[in-house]
Amino acid sequence: MKISPVIAAVWDFRRDREQLEKYTGNTVFILKTDLISLQGNIKFLRKLGKKAFLDIDFVEGLSNDEYALRYATLNGVDGIITVKPKMIELCKKYAVPNVLRSFALDSNALLKLSDTLNFLKPDYLEILPGSSFFKTREFISKTHGNNLPPLIAAGLVESEPELQTLINGGAISVSTSKKDLWEIDYL
Question: How far apart (Å, rounded) are the C-alpha atoms in residues 44 and 61?
Answer without folding.
Answer: 20
